[in-house]
């Protein structure tokens, strides 16, 4: 994947396209990107949608913009992000594992 400029660009523009290209675990994901360039996004992987609102959450992904993009761009593995505290995950372990596999190879 070519490097994107921001986490917002990835979540607003590239994630919706990515949802239509592969097999993803059926779950609801809340992405919380912290800091000035951040925000909150909800992805319904079963419906293949991304929005600013959501009511059900199976997995929460929390990171700073730079760290999130390092994972997306392959400069940091999800495992390294967790070990160093740059990436925080919560929720169903099986769904987290499937999601991280897809995002790490975006």
In short:
The chain is α+β, with helices and mostly antiparallel strands. Helices cover 38% and strands 24% of the residues. The protein is globular and about 30 Å long.
Strand composition percent: 15-25%
Low-confidence stretches: none
Helix content: 25-40%
Mean pLDDT: 87
If you had to describe this structure to a student in words, what would you say it looks like?
- The chain is an alpha+beta fold and 106 residues long.
- Helix content is 38%, strand content 24%.
- It has four helices and five strands, in the order H-E-E-E-E-H-H-E-H.
- The chain has a five-stranded mixed β-sheet.
- The longest helix is centred in the first third of the chain and has 13 residues, at 7-19.
- It is globular, with a radius of gyration of 12 Å.
- The termini are close together.
- The model has no long low-confidence stretch (mean pLDDT 87).
What is the topological layout?
Elements: H1 7-19, E1 28-33, E2 39-44, E3 49-51, E4 59-63, H2 65-72, H3 78-84, E5 87-91, H4 93-104
Parallel strand pairs: 1-4
Antiparallel strand pairs: 1-2, 2-3, 4-5
Q: Which characteristics define this entry?
A:
alpha+beta; five-stranded mixed beta sheet; 5 strands; globular; single chain; 106 residues
